[in-house]
Structure prediction request, 173 residues.
Amino acid sequence: MKRWQAILPLAALVGLGILGGVQLMRPAEESFTAKADRIAPDRSFPLLDDATQSISFDPPPGDKPVMVNLFASWCAPCRAEHGDITRLAETHPGQVYGLAYKDAPEATRGFLAELGNPFEKIGVDRDGQGGLDFGLTGVPETFVISPEGRIILHVRGPLDEERARQVSAALEG
Prediction:
């Protein structure tokens, strides 16, 4: 076998690896933010600070759209998006809620003690079924729910400046 024939499969593999890396670093924007029009899950979540009380988002509390951010203390991108969530909570008081996904309550409390708690209320989804009911593909994800209980925006992955702007516009109705 000639030397170039032995190197050809290796070169093809390296080329595919580079192409895959580029695609991962520059994914299509529309794959992360999608307008949605489906009903929020008909499920109650116990509150982080008082498990005897719960919260539901079908319909959500109040008469304005709300944002529900599914996060976890073990999630590095959740940490990265926390500043954007804090700014949204300051801009839209009473409209930003959290849902701790597959996280121990003490770990969630530690995460919020360290970074600050921007959420109006925080539900707990210990087994993860509630996240699946929302349509979660992986934390963090953010859902904006209309006062009628319809998911009107679904953001996959961490919020950044542009995605936070889209969430803000949806919260304004």
Summary: The helical segments are 3-25, 76-91, 105-115, 129-134, 161-172. The first helix runs from residue 3 to 25.
